[in-house]
Fold this sequence. Notes:
DUF2971, 10 strands, three-stranded mixed β-sheet, alpha/beta
Amino acid sequence: MHHMLWAGSVGERLRRLIEKINPGGAARLWSLLTGVSRNRYAGTYITSLTEHGQKASESTLGRLSMWRACGGDTNACLVIDPVVIRDEKRDDGLFIGPVLYKDPNGFIRYFSNIIDLMNEHIDIVRNIDIVERLYSLFTHFSVISKHPGFHEEKEWRVYTGKYLSPNREIPLPVTPVSVGGVPQKIAQIKFEHLKDMQGQPLNADKIIERVIIGPSPYGIVLKEAIEAAMVTASFGNPGDRVINSNIPLRR
């Protein structure tokens, strides 16, 4: 998207703003944005969540489109307490936020409003490294932007990456695993990395409100297995927190 933005009138406005603050900065920013390395892609880690509805249908059945798009015969939905995504002031290189559903033209209009705000507060903007800040901003947008056709997913993303972290380091331990038969590296978020609004450490029992087992011919077996795992992990009232979706989905 930044290629289209840069080439048009909004890009011209952005270049004028940068040059007003940092002569030569526009060319340096463009060099950073186009000098994409493999690490920028392979070194970015994302977990996708969906904003769960409070209606009785979704709270007990889950969302049909999610079962269809992401489901299998042994899938489950973990309903988590939003306390883990409320902290918008993290400074450890781990970011949490909603997906931006924009097509290229919609994104350009959206970014034009950002330029308006920057011009409005030019005295503040002069005191920051404008090139580094804009590079970081475009990098974030590359991670959280998605085609508007997917808007009903109401997706949030938990993400990190070398080019998103303040010290250019991944703030989480990285380990190789096999996911769906594909060997790959994942960044692990451990519970001690997460804290509640009072700064107290969270654990699985506090984070996971309940589990909805997706439409499956093995629903009874899955329910028993998940409840047993929750007992082992010292969850409170696991029998009340694991439910089967009874959507009669046929694949």
